Amino acid sequence: MDYRTVGLKVGLEIHQQLATHKLFCEDASVLVDAPGGQRFRRRLRPTQSELGEVDAAAIEEAKRRLTFVYETTPNSCLVEADEEPPHPPNPEALDIALEIALLLDAKPVNEVDFMRKIVIDGSNTAGFQRSALVALDGQLAVNGKRIGVPTILLEEDAARKLGEAESEVVYRLDRLGIPLVEIATAPDIATPDEAREVALAFGSLLRATRKVMRGIGTIREDLNVSIQGGARIEIKGVQDLRMIATFVEKEVERQRTLLETAEELGKRNVRSVPSSLHDFTSAFGGTQSKVIRATVTKGGVVLGWSLPGFAGLLKGKLGPELAAHARIAGVAGIFHSDELPGYGISREEAEAVRAALGLGDRDAFVLVAEAESKARAAFDEMSPRAIAALSGVPPETREPRPDGTTVYSRPLPGKARMYPETDVPPIRVAADRLRKIREHLPEKPEVTIARLAREFGIHEQQSRQLVQEGSHHAFETIAREFGEPTLVASVLLYSFGELRREGLDVDGIPLDHLRELFSLLKAGRFAKEALPDLVREMAGSRTRASEALMTLGVKGLSRPDLQSIVDEVIRDSEDLISTRGDAAEKALMGRVMERVRGRADGKIVSDAVRTSLEAFLRTKGERPKKKEKKK
Questions:
Q1: What three-state secondary structure class fits 423?
Q2: Banded model confidence at residue 627, pLDDT cuts 50, 70, 90
Q3: Which is the most buried residue in 28, 121, 362, 512, by most CB within 10 A?
Q4: How far apart are the first and last CA of the chain?
């Protein structure tokens, strides 16, 4: 697809946790896996801005009528529980945010003023997030193209969702209050692949500071995507950078589908959507639908809604959009005519609904089986979405799914959600503070890439990958100390990459544990072939290299022990050697490596096999001649 033809525009909002204690108290910024903290409950309601406005996103969240359960942890203080005012902002976190701003050639503000951003989805106990503008008008060159950075903010991270049940969501407070830097780019990105490249470039720059947190969930991207004729869609909280291009591609497809649907509705002369509902409970008295039977048994109803002109435009198009809006009212799902008969609803029952609503071949209908109040509320939520379909693409916030698709979350937030934080005094950004930060700015990624390739003799692509993944500091430290830069790069790039795909947190292995690993390798305690298994054990059990060696039973072979194994393999392979002569070396090498893998270096094994094979052939007095090729 030519994305420039469809007018694709993409902007990123990058949220990176900073490697320091929490923003408004002195507790550690760590996640706690063990349960057992105290719990308390809250209900959150929207509040007005300074101008008396109420944010649309907050209103919609309030409609869900959820109760939020918060679980405390050893690193959650009374500030996170909203039981005491915030402490003075973490000065180290502000310094890191200013350092990032200077690396992006942005202009720091003269005074940092924290604001309250209304958020009532339960992720903040107070019903708002504290956020402050730090710098303006930055930029980053990516593949020779300038990507604008209008704003850089410092804010607090949200609580961590553990799960949800009907009308109740459970959060843990360990993540709440961890400092975040938010970098917003201009909509300068023109293709899905470029979106991924830009995200990688910003990630490299952030990791260059060595002052940001690493691991799953420590960096998240919001994608703002639009096409010509469409609308700005915010995809909230993408964690896997490899999926960014996929999310953009699928959002373009979704918007094009919605625009085509609106065009088709126009051709069918659909100008409005009915609002009246019909009660079909009695019509389903003998239904085989388990959902409807269960609902009616509990005293619920089956309500129907006609959509003239919408036939064929619900399945895979507007149907999922309507269902997502219906769920705001607390219903599990909807039935629509494009998918019927099905789900236990017979053809006769579907035709009876059509007849009662007076529908033709081009008309559609929607059914909801629920308690009557919930069912009517569901149609109240769906009606504006069906009306919006006549125009095309409504602007909104959507949540990412693992397959690259998204689902409706809430309307786009607006200015009405912001108002000043009265409990945090303004912070002047003095010239002397900026001067000290400038004096210690780290090397920029492009400079590091060229230097590593030059100094260590590795390929520039390897150097670039090390920088993009934030492994270059570990690479440089280990390669300088123990040599073998190619091997070190291979482990940090390829072995680590495979283990990341297995879901192992290799980025959480401390540098001193990796240094110990290569120190043991250099001392001959194991062969390099054992490195992937040892790293897997270190990441999985969070142990040191020496402990991983003991757990796996990996022990280096002495030369005499290796020679003994080689001699035994050669004795057992006399028939093979007598038939193939020198050509048997490769097969012999494979048999020896099966027995010594991870305990002896491959080159040493190869030398031992070749020497022993030659000696064995000499004792036989002659070697089988290799067949000459026919001319």
A1: coil
A2: very low
A3: 121
A4: 53
Query: CA 216, CA 194: separation in Å to the nearest integer?
Result: 22
According to DSSP, the residues that pair with 606 across neighbouring strands are: none
Q: Distance (Å, rounded) from C-alpha 116 to C-alpha 135?
A: 18
Q: How many Cα atoms are found within 13 Å in the side-chain-facing hemisphere of 438?
A: 11
Neighbours of 607 (CB within 10 A): 12
The total number of residues shown for the chain amounts to: 631
Closest CA to 598 of 535, 529, 533: 529
CA 238 to centroid of chain Cα atoms: 4
Helix 445-456 to helix 192-208 angle (10° resolution) is 80
Tell me 329's DSSP state.
G
Containing H/E element for 406?
A: strand 406-410
Q: How many Å apart are CA 171 and CA 39, to the nearest integer?
A: 10
Our separate counts of H helices and E strands in the chain read 21, 21
- Could you tell me where the DSSP H helices lie in 64-191? 91-103
* CB-based contacts of 137, cutoff 8 Å, min separation 6: 106, 107, 148, 149, 150
β-strand pairing of 396-400 with 233-238: parallel
- Residue 397 phi/psi, 5-degree rounding, is -100, 135
Mean pLDDT across the chain: 90
Beta bridge partners of 170: 69, 163
Name the token pair of 153: 């903010």
**Using one digit for the tens of pLDDT, what is the confidence trace for 569-579?**
778 787 788 77
353: enclosing H helix or E strand: helix 347-357
Report whether 42 contacts 149 (CB < 8 A).
no
Share of the chain above pLDDT 90, in %: 70
- Higher-pLDDT residue of 626, 611: 611
| Environment class of 287 (CB within 10 Å of its CB; exposed 0-12, middle 13-18, buried 19+) | middle
| pLDDT digit string, tens, across residues 170-190 | 999 999 999 999 999 999 999
